């Protein structure tokens, strides 16, 4: 009788533990399949993929360099070519066109692409408009169920784990101390032992469920699958010049360059210091003359 009750209880608890786990496997497999289908149907524009990688400015600068609108020197300063100054010539895509307009606003002063990407408000506005327009075309991916962030489920899981561990200890003690007699009781004992072994492996089974149904970041993998065609078409020297100009956000500021008048302030401070010095020297000489007049020994003798 003990073996029968023990086998039934262990089987029921094992089913209670593995039932939600099987349901989680089914839900996660459906979400994974739907996510992969949605991502497979996405057709990303090269500039949209570059924008999702935060490389839209690099791609736009690469296209302007290849088209002959822009020239970048070894110090990272970007200059317009004669073709780039022609208002009738502009790229068809809005991102390189916005970058070209930004460089034209600074012409003829040298400006780095990094300074435009960091501080040019008009360029940022055009970039945000493009980003907003393209984000509406992306599918809304379903959220993978994992139970994280739900405090109730977390507390319930902790209580359930504690109860299962307590049950496992009691059932193991009853199983070890029991003395099965006959084939039927031995079969029930084996069933109970297998159930306890399955409960012991429940945590590992849960990890396997999550690993086998994890879809990762398919949209990110699609975005990172290949670089922008214009950036890939650059040779090594051109690529280094573009990256150097994008990395420079302080040296070349175009018409935004601020000339600090520190030299004039320093000159004013120096003049003030010289005035103070002259005043102290005059005061010292005046004090010394007073002391000479008051000291009779230092007065020149008459006759």
Architecture overview:
The chain is mostly helical and 303 residues long. The chain has 14 helices and two strands, in the order αααββααααααααααα. The chain has helices at 2-40, 46-52, 56-67, 82-85, 94-106, 113-119, 121-135, 151-177, 182-200, 202-213, 218-223, 229-233, 236-247, 262-294, and strands at 70-72, 78-80. Strands 1-2 form a two-stranded antiparallel sheet. Strand 1 (70-72) and strand 2 form a beta hairpin. Helix 1 (2-40) packs parallel to helix 10 (202-213). Mean pLDDT is 80; it is low at 259-268, 277-284 and 296-303.
Brief digest:
The chain has helices spanning 2-40, 46-52, 56-67, 82-85, 94-106, 113-119, 121-135, 151-177, 182-200, 202-213, 218-223, 229-233, 236-247, 262-294, and strands at 70-72, 78-80. It is mainly α and 303 residues long.
Keywords:
disordered C terminus; single chain; 303 residues; 70% helix
Order of helices and strands: HHHEEHHHHHHHHHHH
Low-pLDDT segments, ≥5 res: 259-268, 277-284, 296-303
Count of helix runs: 14
Average pLDDT confidence is: 80
Radius of gyration: 40 Å
Number of strands: 2
Instruction: Give me the secondary-structure category.
Output: mainly alpha
Name the strands of the widest sheet in spatial order: 1-2
> Which range does the strand content fall in?
under 5%
Largest sheet: 2 strands, antiparallel
The geometry reads as rod-shaped
**Amino-to-carboxy terminus distance:** 146 Å
Helix percentage: 55-70%
């Amino acid at each position: 009788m003990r073996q029968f009750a023990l086998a039934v209880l262990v089987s029921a608890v094992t089913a209670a533990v593995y039932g939600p786990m099987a349901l989680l496997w089914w839900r996660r497999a459906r979400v994974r399949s739907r996510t992969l289908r949605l991502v497979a149907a996405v057709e990303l524009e090269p500039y949209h993929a570059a924008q999702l990688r935060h490389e839209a400015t690099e791609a736009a600068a690469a296209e302007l360099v290849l088209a002959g609108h822009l020239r970048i020197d070894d110090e990272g300063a970007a200059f317009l070519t004669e073709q780039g100054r022609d208002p009738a010539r502009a790229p068809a895509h809005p991102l390189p066109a916005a970058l070209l307009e930004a460089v034209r606003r600074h012409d003829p002063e040298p400006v780095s692409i990094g300074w435009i990407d960091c501080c040019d408000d008009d360029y940022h506005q055009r970039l945000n408009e493009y980003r907003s327009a393209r984000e509406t075309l992306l599918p809304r991916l379903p959220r993978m169920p994992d139970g994280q962030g739900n405090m109730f489920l977390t507390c319930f899981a902790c209580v359930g784990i504690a109860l299962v561990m307590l049950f496992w200890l009691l059932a193991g003690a009853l199983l070890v101390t029991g003395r099965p007699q006959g084939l039927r009781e031995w079969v029930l004992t084996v069933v109970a032992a297998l159930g306890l072994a399955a409960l012991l492996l429940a945590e590992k089974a849960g990890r396997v469920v999550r690993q086998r149904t994890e879809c990762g970041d398919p949209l990110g993998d699609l975005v990172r699958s290949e670089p922008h065609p214009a950036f890939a078409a650059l040779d090594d020297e051109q690529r280094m010049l573009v990256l150097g100009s994008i990395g420079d956000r302080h040296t070349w500021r175009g018409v935004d360059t601020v000339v600090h008048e520190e030299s004039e302030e320093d000159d004013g401070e120096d003049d003030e210091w010289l005035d103070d010095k002259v005043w102290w020297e005059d005061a010292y000489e005046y004090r010394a003359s007073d002391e000479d007049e008051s000291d009779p020994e230092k007065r020149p003798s008459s006759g």
